[in-house]
């Protein structure tokens, strides 16, 4: 994140802790929890969520990785390079990006 003043200087309407209840991409509008509609030209939704930890035997093993930060993505990509088998579990909250593709060595 940038220093708070950066957002105003760059015409960014930063709304921390604000709940968005609906999104209308065709109209370029969001609806806030109080019912207020506000337009946007570009939108970044930062959900602030955390990955749900698996509660199954083996979830604490070294090869079980979670995606939350950029560094996590780098670790996952590196693990894929030498992986013989890969399982991707998750709902990808926003659905905006597919999971990273395994390297050439991953066969299953």
* Secondary-structure element order, N to C: HEEEH
Uncertain regions spanning at least 5 consecutive residues: 104-108
Q: Give the helix proportion (percent range).
A: 10-25%
- Give, in spatial order, the strands making up the sheet with the most strands: 1-2-3
Q: Evaluate the radius of gyration.
A: 19 Å
Number of helices: 2
**Class by helix and strand content?**
alpha+beta
How far apart are the termini?
A: 38 Å
> What share of residues are in beta strands?
5-15%
List descriptors.
108 residues; 2 helices; disordered C terminus; 3 strands; 17% helix; three-stranded antiparallel beta sheet; alpha+beta
Task: Outline the structure in words.
By secondary structure, this protein is of the alpha+beta class. Helices cover 17% and strands 11% of the residues. It is built from 2 helices and 3 strands; from the N terminus they run αβββα. A hairpin with a 4-residue loop joins β2 and β3. The protein is elongated. 2% of the residues are buried. The model is unreliable at 104-108 (pLDDT under 50).
Task: Write a compact overview of the structure shown.
With 108 residues, the protein is α+β, with helices and mostly antiparallel strands. 17% of the residues lie in helices and 11% in strands. A three-stranded antiparallel sheet has the order 1-2-3, with no helix packed on it.
What are the SSEs and their pairings?
Elements: H1 4-9, E1 20-24, E2 29-32, E3 37-39, H2 70-81
Antiparallel strand pairs: 1-2, 2-3
């Amino acid at each position: 994140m940038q220093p708070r003043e950066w957002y105003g200087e760059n015409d960014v309407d930063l709304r921390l802790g604000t709940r968005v209840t609906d999104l209308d991409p065709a109209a370029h509008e969001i609806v806030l929890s109080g019912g207020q509609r506000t337009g946007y030209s570009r939108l970044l939704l930062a959900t602030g969520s955390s990955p749900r930890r698996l509660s199954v035997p083996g979830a604490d093993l070294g090869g079980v990785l979670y995606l939350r930060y950029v560094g996590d993505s780098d670790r996952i990509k590196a693990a894929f390079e030498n992986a013989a088998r890969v399982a991707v579990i998750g709902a990808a909250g926003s659905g905006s990006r597919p999971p990273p593709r395994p390297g050439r060595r991953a066969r299953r």
